[in-house]
Specification:
Blueprint: H1 2-14, H2 17-35, H3 41-48, H4 57-82, H5 91-102, H6 106-139, H7 144-161, H8 166-180, E1 183-184, E2 191-192, H9 206-224, H10 243-265, H11 272-285, H12 298-321, H13 327-338, H14 347-350, H15 352-373, H16 377-382, H17 388-407, H18 410-428, H19 434-456, H20 468-492
Antiparallel strand pairs: 1-2
């Protein structure tokens, strides 16, 4: 009941005229960037960080939430119409959605995607409302050793799960950890990895790294593979959803929600895994298995629901534990730190207006997004006609101006170029980006918790495995490493 009271208070915050305006701006912007291939919510929020420094944190995060959810909605448009996912979670939607569009059923595919996103987003936000305070209460019993073990679990799961290679994932994580220790050691006061550069004594600005990896690295990667002669976008055609389409869609919507939300809460869960699981499940349960591969509506409804539910699930560990489980969550954590806030159990008491206003805005944003996506789909499709060279050039200029406007430092611009080119090389050779961000953000936190635990135990490392919580987390982290190796070894046996 307390959660409902807090939620009502949150609606009072979210329904303020200015916050409603920011929610609408975020939802519209999120839909637009979801539609445009190569631009995701992480990039957009990273670009907005320098711009939102003058906005209050509550309004800023309401807008960021709109961008986050809106990208989930908009990403299905390009998946269905041109077989190009606007963001990673829409990959599975493209399999059946594009084939439906080619069969003249693009309108039905877009409708089931939009409604499924609304249903899943609303149900998952409802789950977030009650799960998040419960997890936050549990977090109060965590000791420094428990937090350290939890962060180690996050490191292992992100490095192993994200990307196609465990080795590449670990290298990406190491790069993030290395950047995280640059600057003055707060315990000894000695500079670390500064190479005699006074500009590095305060460390690398997190916003600079975020904007570099996404705005420069990602855009260079997309542009390098740009083909001017690529197939033109399909038009929205066919009838809207029929009664039969609704009958075939509502169960996948619910099943996708049930898969997506818990998977989104797990470190390294993201949206890719639950959408794949949802697609596989719907293919097995469908009464029309012969349609899969040729445009089955269940193959659109389920993954889209799982995608949006996972987005809400990502917010549970972020808000309650300060633990990002995806690249977008890592950027949101950086946004919190930009405002001098640290997500965790104390956030629910020290910044209740922000937390509950944010959660309430998710309900409001879902309604806005449904209105924006169903009747106005034709308008969003027109965004696909924007020439890609001009679009990406504009993003790069906006990124450089944003960083210069915040820091006014030529050194930061040099760092932007170096990190951006490194991000591009990583993309070319299939190194995942998310472990870099999570290593950079969580590395200093892991160091702090480790030092605190060892100081309290007078240097005795056994303190790291003295509590059931830390033992559980470290055991799971070890299993994440060992189990895939065992499975691989068994497969090689004759």
């Amino acid at each position: 009941m307390e959660s409902l009271e807090y939620l009502m208070h949150g609606f009072g915050v979210a329904l303020q005229p200015m916050n409603l305006l920011w929610a609408f701006i975020g939802s519209a912007l999120g839909t637009a960037i979801g539609v445009l291939p190569g631009i995701g919510p992480a990039l957009t929020i990273a670009l907005l960080l320098p711009v939102t420094v003058s906005i209050g944190p509550t309004s800023a995060f309401i807008m960021f939430a709109g961008v986050f959810y809106g990208a989930m909605y908009g990403g299905s448009t390009t998946s269905i119409l041109i077989n190009t996912p606007g963001e990673a979670g829409s990959m599975m939607t493209a399999l059946e959605g594009n084939r439906m569009a080619r069969r003249g059923r693009g309108a039905a595919a877009l409708a089931t995607a939009a409604i499924g996103s609304f249903v899943a987003g609303t149900l998952a936000t409802f789950a977030l409302t009650f799960v998040a305070p419960f997890v936050a209460e549990l977090a109060f019993v965590f000791k420094p050793a428990d937090y350290f073990a939890l962060i180690v679990l996050a490191f292992c799961s992100v490095a192993v799960v994200m990307g196609n290679s465990r080795t590449r994932g670990l290298i990406s994580l190491f790069l993030g950890l290395a950047m995280g220790v640059i600057g003055i050691d707060k315990l000894t006061g000695q500079p670390r990895l500064t190479f005699g550069q006074a500009e590095l004594l305060d460390g690398i600005e997190l916003t600079v790294v975020l904007v570099s990896l996404f705005a420069i690295g990602e855009i260079l990667f997309v542009v390098s593979r740009y083909d001017p002669g690529k197939e033109a976008p399909l038009t929205v055609s066919g009838k809207w959803m029929t009664k039969q389409d609704f009958a075939r869609s509502w169960k996948p919507w619910l099943r996708g929600t049930a898969i997506g939300f818990p998977m989104g809460t797990l470190p390294g869960g993201g949206s890719e895994i639950p959408t794949m699981l949802s697609y596989t499940l719907e293919r097995k349960l469908s009464k029309h298995p012969e349609e899969f591969g040729h445009g089955a509506i269940e193959g659109v409804a389920g993954p889209e629901a799982a995608n949006n539910a996972a987005a809400a699930g990502v917010l549970v560990p972020l808000l309650t534990l300060g633990l990002p489980t995806s690249a977008t969550a890592a950027v949101l954590l950086a946004a919190f730190q930009n405002y001098g806030l640290q997500p965790g159990p104390n956030l629910f008491t020290s910044n209740a207006d922000l937390v509950w206003g944010l959660i309430a805005s998710l309900y409001i944003g879902n309604i806005m997004l449904l209105v924006l996506n169903l009747p106005l789909i034709g308008m969003w499709v027109k965004l696909l006609s924007v020439p890609k060279p001009q679009l990406y050039a504009g993003i790069l200029i906006f990124a450089l101006i944003g960083i210069w406007g915040v820091s006014g430092s030529e050194f930061d611009l040099i760092v932007m170029v170096i990190v951006g080119v490194a991000g591009y090389v990583m993309r070319v050779y299939d190194f995942p980006i998310a472990p870099v961000l999570i290593g950079l953000i969580l590395g200093p936190m892991a160091e702090f918790q480790l030092r605190t635990a060892l100081t309290a135990a007078q240097g005795n490392p056994a303190t790291l495995v003295e509590t059931p919580i830390s033992i559980t987390f470290l055991t799971i982290a070890a299993l994440i490493f060992i189990v895939p190796m065992l499975i691989k070894g068994l497969r090689k046996r004759p």
